[in-house]
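Case study B.
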Amino acid sequence: MSTETDTQTEKPVVLELKNLQTHFFTDMGVARSVDGVSYKVHEGQTLGVVGESGCGKSVTALSIMGLIPRPPGKIVGGEILFEGRDLTKLTEAELRKIRGKEIAMIFQEPMTSLNPVYTVGDQIMEMMLNHEDITELEARERAIKLLEEVGIPSPEERVDNYPHNMSGGMRQRVMIAMSLACSPKLLLADEPTTALDVTIQAQILDLMNKLQKERNTAIVMITHDLGVVAETCDHVVVMYAGHVAEKADVFSLFENPCHPYTIALFKSIPDLVGKGGRLFTIDGMVPSAYNFPEGCRFQARCPFATEQCNTKPPMEEVEPEHFVACHHWREAKAYYAKEDAKEDAQQVEQEGAE
Amino acid sequence: MSKASTTNASVQNAHAEEDLTYGDIVWGQLRKNKYAIYSLYLLIGLFAVAIYAPLLASDRPFIWTQDGVTTYPWFSSLFDRNYFENGVDIFFNALMVASLPVIGTWYAGLKYFQQSEPRKRPRRRKIQRLTFALIGLVFASYIALLAMPYEKPYRTYQEDYIAAQEDDSVSIEATFAVIPFGYRKTGFKSLDKPSTEHWLGVDQSTRDVAVRMLYGTRIALSIGVIAVSIYVTIGVFIGSMAGFFGGVVDLVVVRFIEIFMSIPSLFVILTLLAFVEKPSIFHIMMVIGLLRWTGVARLVRSEFLRLRNLDFVNAAIALGFPTHKIIFQHILPNALGPVLVNATFGVASAILIESTLSFLGLGDVSVPSWGQTLSEGYATSAWHLILTPGIAIFITVSLLNQLGDGVRSALDPKARK
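Model:
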């Protein structure tokens, strides 16, 4: 399983997290925000990380970048293997060489992620001058080319614009241009489309897909939007309260969700086709990171929870490359299959009556 | 055709409007503030007076013809360190001499770049480079001037001239400045009231007040600017370290600032100057600079704490920039607004401190500072010795405060419309 090349996809593994644990030591206690997360990212593929707010998606990404504020945060266990090197053991200077050049990151808020005092061209150029041995003129030309590639009209003029002269979507394009300036092997996108409006979202996702194909970049797409996952990702990791609930490739997850949490997530998406009515909701709230329950962390909100859930559920392989961490996934599946059948029957009946 | 060209022009205008830098916005905002902009112009005028003081007042004649031989003593006096003893005067003289070629080159460069470089941003960068080069040139020439040897004998042209007019055997022709006295020239009637010869009267030590006021502008402005530059540099450095690194560094720095601020600075200055045998103007600048950095440090620290958590700082780290670049290139330019306001007010308060020190008799006695004249006025209760420097200090300080206030509201995003 842990060989460098995955037999099924036959693409080399770029990033592998092994049992990553990032905790925050504060006055209120220890917040175990990321507690034993493992996943793999393959070259040229996109991994979606899905979950509610506060489930540890972003902290995982920040841990990979080494951006966890220390103190209070600390990576207490596990490994982050980037091309075989453990990033948790590198010094700050070694990390700096990797950041930007080999791993880049796109942030959620395009309004604040560009420096307001420099032109966008300067910022892209600085990025290249910092990591590569090129002249300022070459950098400028490449910056213009990059801006053109990310779909900014009249890039020769736009290169001298300040961020406040641009719209949110344009800034996110600039941010993408910046992060791709040195052709990194891995791109961490932390909710890159959340702050944009829907039409722009689709454009940005298309752009990222296109650039990924051209450069063979691996992307970790952190999002809470299952639509984004369906559109862009090859593999998906569903996180809940610092644990991985389920991981699978995108088709098998959408066709065959197994964890009660994943099923509930899918059920709470509004349905365009079916008849209206109340949306499905998951009762309760994500437990506070300071006192997660022992064992399965979803148990307080899970209709199938039993005594058994006080022990940590193992990763069970449902089908090839599809893992779920739940003691009762079979019952949950059976229950929801019955529900669905009932609903379908009702609908058919109603249609018949009409 | 005409319609197409007008749309083209409007498109270009739209772009020109769009491409405003933060500086452009603040300047536009400042320009709307009438009082601030008049203060700025008057302050520029004050600087001009300081720079061109020798043109208005000097006891060296511009042209001196004695027995058919013509010399130009005024020009040779400018960098003569027997005549102008302190570095401040030499610096302003260097500025005066350099002003014409520097402004000329700058203006020519501006025109040239406007023609050769249609794009706004690269042009701005070229103009910036030219400006920095010229400033560097002035400073380099100043240092060269300070290093120059000076061994010319001191000569009293004014007395020779007066003597020659009574004595027919010597023929002397000379052109003097409007006020034909130097600021160290003594021997007039003590405490003489203002007259046509001595426009602002004579002080207790038998020197012309008008000349001293004129050259005092140099002292006041240079004290303000240099002391503030020193403490802004210190404050920005310490504040940015505390704000960026946080934790223990922050704790130690903030406690240190609090201890520093709890000591009344005037008394520390008095104590420190008491240790110096003969305090020079540079000692005073240093002492003010070393004591008043706390305000700037706190401002910069708080700005850093705010900016530290913004995404672009995280992005800069995530893109692999070195720490010093993140601190000084990415965060600092965003934190300088409040410092600018503080510095403007700081210049005013530094001028006041220097006047206070001179008034208390702890200033540099070799320079013609306003506070000294005021102090003599207080000792002799001669009205012209109190009123003149009093008004000069009052005007300078209130112009600076007015400008500082203007800058503050120009930087305030809420005031923008």
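Residues 299 and 332 of chain A are 13 Å apart (CA to CA). The remaining cases will be described in the next quarterly update.
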